[in-house]
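lol ok so funny story. i was supposed to be doing the assay writeup but got distracted and ended up predicting the structure for this chain instead. priorities right. anyway since i did it might as well share w the group, maybe its usefull for someone
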Amino acid sequence: MKLNLSKVGIKFTEMNVDEDKHKRIAGLYHIRTLPTLVITRGGHPQESLPGVRPIYELEKIKQKYGL
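and the output, tada:
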């Protein structure tokens, strides 16, 4: 089941990366585990949050970053 983040007004992009082949990308976004939610602004990572996040946490993230 996919979470519809548009319900909380967050624009997102799903990115599947083979960590063994693309270690630079995983390192750039501080991805250590899957899933990982990466908050970016202007293409630059602001925060990396490992694990599944409940809707109320997404609402807090939205407020924190003014999304």
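The chain has a mean pLDDT of 78. The chain has one domain: 5-65.
back to the writeup now i swear
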